[in-house]
Write a structure and sequence with these properties.
14% strand; alpha+beta; three-stranded mixed β-sheet
Length: 173
């Protein structure tokens, strides 16, 4: 059996043998904040998430909105709705886990198929993106599970000291 067929057989068989390897779609329930550390919220699995109450978003969701619209919306469309040459992240994030998101943004990705080529550039060296990966992830996760509507969040929590300290450290300030 050649290596390509073997890889395909493994990819098809592993989820059958171990159903936990199949990533199920994210939902508001899975994304619910169960813990908080200096203004950053986490779900039951310890993955960064959002907290939106009475129309007020946590700082990281708001920051993610700002950072997304600074660097990502040019290709992926406003509010993650996609464009003619980049996928709708508000849709694809429903089935993308946190490590995969971090890897794709940091390292980039190239998809070629059906006569079409899509290239996601690597942003691992761009501090304006890399220093805010959690924020962008949190914002897109909120959009993916319909917790955050389109447009600028009307109200936001204050910027926590932990966010200020991390930003200064990451940006070199």
């Amino acid at each position: 059996m050649n290596s390509r067929l073997l890889a395909l057989a493994v990819a098809v068989t592993l989820p059958v043998l171990n159903p936990s390897l199949v990533l199920s779609a994210d939902t508001k329930e899975k994304a619910a904040a169960v813990s908080e550390e200096d203004g950053k919220f986490f779900d039951a699995e310890g993955t960064p998430t959002f907290k939106i109450e009475n129309g007020t978003v946590d700082w990281y969701t708001f920051s993610g909105y700002r950072r997304y619209h600074s660097d990502c919306h040019v290709c992926h469309g406003p509010d993650g709705v996609g464009s003619s040459y980049a996928p709708a992240l508000a849709e694809s994030m429903k089935n993308m886990d946190y490590p995969t998101f971090l890897s794709i943004v940091a390292e980039g990705r190239q998809n070629v198929g059906g006569g079409k080529e899509n290239v996601m550039p690597a942003f691992g060296d761009n501090k304006n993106v890399y220093c805010y990966l959690d924020d962008i992830y949190i914002y897109l996760r909120a959009r993916a599970v319909d917790a955050a509507p389109r447009g600028r969040p009307p109200n936001k929590a204050d910027k926590p000291q932990g966010a200020k300290d991390y930003e200064a450290s990451c940006m070199g300030g």
